[in-house]
Each structure stands twice: as C-alpha cells, then as structure tokens.
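Let's practice the habit of predicting before peeking. Look at the sequence and jot down your guess about where helices and strands might fall. Then scroll down.
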Amino acid sequence: MLNKQLSDRLTSKTIKQSIVNNISKDFNLAPLLAEAYFNQIKDYFLHYTDINLSTGQVHYLAIEENEPAGKPIALCKKISVALTLHNPEEDIPIYKKSGLRGLRQHKIVRITNDAISQGGVLSYEDLAFILTSSVVTIKRDMSQMRRHGIILPSRGWRHEMGRGQTHKTQILDLYLSGYQFSDIHKRTHHSETAIKRYIQDFARVILLHKKDFSLSQIRIATGFSHRLIGEYLKLFKQHSDSAHLKRILQSKKKKVDNSTRTTIS
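Done guessing? Here is the structure:
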C-alpha cells in the first residue's frame, strides 16, 4: 500500500488539484473553499456543455423561454440547445425551388423551433449571427412569414407584441378549440414536443388556480410571469366547457396524485 505521504503527493499532481491550488492562490481563498468553487464551476460547465450533436447541428446558448421580454440579456437565464443548421435532404430541394431567401426562411423556422422544443427562444440578433445575415433581413423574413400565418416567437417579436397574446396562448387556444397536434403543427410550425410542454404548463397553472392559489403564489410555484399566468386563466374561462380542457386537467391530476402516493409510500 502507498503510505499517506506518497498518496498525498500523487493527489497534488492531478489536474483538478492544480486548478484548485491556482484558484486558492489567485483569489486568496482557503483550499477547502477553493475546491468548493471548483466543483460548482465544474457542475456549471457540464450543465451547459452536456449536449449530443448530430451531423449539421451546432450547440448554442439561448434565452430561457419564460424570461420576460425586455429583461437585460445579461440577467436572463440561458439554456443549451442543439440547432440543426444544415440538413441536405431538406435544404437542397428548398434551395433549388426557392433560392437563398427561401432556404434562409426555412432555416429560420427550423432553428427557431429547435430552440422552442428545448425550452429556449432566439433573438433577431441570434438568428442573424447563426445564419450570417443582418438583423434587418431577419426581421423582414419573419414579418413576411407571419403574414402567411407562420408563428415564430423570437425574443424580439415577443417584445414587440405589447399586450397581445403570447405564442403559447395562441397554440393552447387552438388545442382547446379542438385542433389536433398535426393541425396545430401545420399552422404554427411548432413541434409536438413543444405543444405538449405548453399543455402541461397550462394544466399546472389551472390546477393551482383551482386549489385557490393566488396569482403571486402561482408565479412562485411555476416561475411563470404574471402576464402569462393571467393569459392562461383568461383562456381557462374562455374554454371552460372544452373537452380537451377537461381531459388534460384529469390527466395532470392523476399524475400529481400518483406522484404523491409514490412519495408517501
């Protein structure tokens, strides 16, 4: 067996220990505190870089979709997303048919919805940078697509919406009105994964509301803005007789009840 002195000497030569020693020296910290900082930073690094990419995809940091429009980007929570920048099977036929503008608009739809499906939202500047274009061009493309009924919730567009409905509310309105996932996808270009996530979030808010939680309590429990919660409650009143509404609330309640029983057991 190695004696303790030799073991300590070998441990001190690891990369981790070298970094911890540097942190301790550079910031005048106790070794124990320096190691705690190292471990926390390592966890942050793994959280933001642990993402699997396929051919043609890029890793990007997007703004978390529940961050309110107008909040300084530096203060917003970011999440890692995988964006499909190039897919030859889709891109080449579109380029042949519609040229560079058509291809660029197709990519805007694709990467915007890639981000949405993973809980993020891209700004006009993000799209311009990723697609090596100008912000003016991106805004023009997105305005044209929206005139054709394509909902693309970039962060810039959310800021310009004023007091109008968010893209989430618009999609939920379609679902509660009886539209199927395939129909909503065609109308909004949102993936089924994103649509289901919006439905689950909506159900959480409504169940808390039915338990007499206040608006502020719901905001704390869910992390959603007062405005979004208000839209969800308004939507709940508008579709109180919806069969879809009753179905999703029953489904969500069963999951909560099952989770509670499992925890108690």
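How did you do? Residues 259-265 have pLDDT under 50 and may be disordered.
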